Amino acid sequence: MTVQDIKTQKVSRWCSVALLVVSVAARLVFCVGEERVGFVASAAIGLLVFEAVRLVVKKRLGLADVFYSGSSGALLGFNYWLAACAIACAAAAGVIYLRVRRATRTGEEFTKDAVLRMPVPFIPCIFFGTIVAKIISFV
């Protein structure tokens, strides 16, 4: 999904849904009791929060990002999902910063508004945040 998002700015729907279904199903199968409920609730919260953000930003955030957020919630649980989201936002801000810096260094004419309007592939940022949060959860 990350490679698809970077290359084409689109992710196939079946891939997004499959990841979410597999993540939630794995938690239902391999977890017990309240732990199971917590991970499934985290997936639902991830879906709802990102769908709300998607609606607020007038669908500039893709539906695949919403599904990936739910998958991340199922994988990490709520606390680490929050950490992954914070890391993802920092990574996206870093991408924007690097774009501005590169444009300035090469002498390209740009405006701050033009750079901010350029789409940022957010799934790679969420992927990075998820990996870092999962590593932190093991420590």
What is this entry, summarized?
This protein has 7 helices and no strands. By secondary structure, the protein is an all-alpha fold.
Properties at a glance:
mainly alpha, 139 residues
Distance between the termini: 27 Å
Q: Characterize the overall form.
A: elongated
Q: Treating each run of at least 4 consecutive H or I residues as one helix, how many helices? A: 7
Order of helices and strands: HHHHHHH
Percent of residues in helices: over 70%
The protein's oligomeric status is single chain
Largest sheet: none
Beta strand count: 0
> Rg, please?
16 Å
Mean pLDDT: 91
The unreliable regions are none
Structural class estimated from helices and strands: mainly alpha
Structure commentary:
The structure is a single chain. By secondary structure, this protein is an all-alpha fold. The radius of gyration is 16 Å and the shape is elongated. The protein starts with a helix and ends with a helix.
Outline the fold blueprint.
Layout: H1 2-8, H2 13-30, H3 33-56, H4 63-76, H5 78-106, H6 112-117, H7 122-138
